[in-house]
Amino acid sequence: MISKQQNISLFNDLQLDKVSMKAYFDRIGYRGKAEINLETVKALHALHPEAIPFENIDPLVGAPVELSLNRVFKKLVEQGRGGFCFEQNILFGAVLRTLGFNIVGLSARVFWEIEEGEIRPRDHMLLLLDLNGVSYLLDVGFGSASFSAPLVLNQDGIQYTENNHYRISLVAEFYYLEILIKDSWRLMHRFGLEHQMLADYEVVSWYLCTHPQSLFIKDLMVAKSFSEGRYALHNNQFTVHKKEGKSIKQKLQSVEEIIEILQDKFAINLPEGKKLTLKLKDYIDSKT
Q1: Model pTM score
Q2: Which is the catalytic residue, given 45, 48, 58, 85?
Q3: Residue 37: which CATH number?
């Protein structure tokens, strides 16, 4: 017999008080009415990645990453930091659940920018929204390839957003999300609809933050949307992806340049201490 626990959502117990909701709205610059409709979700989904960057500075310097809502809220909202997918989408999902939306967490296997034949664990968090009988895929935590608007889960053909074009295909029990890059479709992730709980994400987050081969402890990865495109920083390579025109790439030549970009373009309130500076120096010395 299936128990009621099988249908419990991670977000049933992750809700914010009025003061915290106001602080979140101020953080992302939301000034509209918080009504339970698709327009509200679209507005929040667009504003969140423009204000709160994707970044992996904590695992990079060996600082613990905690996924409790209190810790995530403090870091991303109060401390002026960013975070990676679990932090970003836990916060975003909690905001939506507090407003009254029906939201659950999913897990995806990433195929974006990895070598052909490489298989990674299901280490990415997505959100699934059910609104008026329609299922929408949400994600504010995938860095430079995050979509800027909800995607309809069961819709054939191309779905257009401000930044990129996507399509979702269902093959057997798995969904495949693809992005259109220079007239070529590239697979981003494969995912199912099994609801994930906080413990599921904590295990994978620990792996990403501690495994010797994890990019999260080897490479600096930062991304942030802006009105005309996206900023991306990988180690000491800074890229401006424009909606119109070619991407502009710049190799940063000093630790000071990287720090300036992190503070200026990504608006990150950097943690104190020498660990980040030492890590950034490695990227300059190795000419990555």
Answers
A1: 0.94
A2: 85
A3: 3.30.2140.20
